[in-house]
Specification:
Layout (H helix, E strand, L loop, with lengths): L12 E3 L4 E3 L10 E7 L10 E4 L22 E8 L11 E2 L2 E9 L12 E7 L2 E5 L4 E4 L6 E4 L1 E2 L4 E6 L11 E5 L2 E5 L10 E3 L8 E3 L1 E6 L6
Length: 224
Amino acid sequence: MQISGNWANNVATTYDGTTWTPAKKIFWSENKMDVYGYYPYMTPTSIDEHQWSVRLDQSTPETADALSGYEASDFLWGKATGVSQTDGDVQLEFKHTCSKMVIKLVKGEQFTDEFSDDTKVYLHSTVPTSTIDFDKGIVSKDIYGTPQKIRAKQVSTDTYEVILIPQSITERMPSVEVEMSGVSYMFSYRPGVQYIVAITLNSSPEQIEVKLVVVLKIGNRNQN
């Protein structure tokens, strides 16, 4: 793969629910080819170090001209190796290259109201910028990036999701802030409190699965 000189260079392809239609016709080579696909569409400036960022506001809705903030932050990548025109349809299995955190809100004993419609959930202290390797399908944290605040997408009355650049937190752990009716509730790691993270191990170290669900118990203004 290269910026230019490929058999087909970064051709946009649109799916209408039944058929994939490329922006221009692509004729098969007589030789076998490697086929790459990714989403969302962009104009790469580099094959192995294209600068890219998740959206800082992932709650923005989709419009006729733009993806939602959440969908625009979810970089998908797939590759099929050594295919020819006699193989039939090209099968591309896309993978998610970023991480996702799910935040669930739980009512405390002193919280008797319904969750406010103006509730906002933010994730602090993570770097949103990255570089993309289109050849390998890898998203890497920008080593010079600055940690910022990301607003999560609401998926139900009490559940929010946010897409993150994969990264190790070395100086401070990410914290979650819930803003509701003018009051901010902050979740952070506190001394003397035990936290449990479930890690699923498979036969290969590369197949480890970490599912982190942060549960905020909302009580009065003085509770975290």
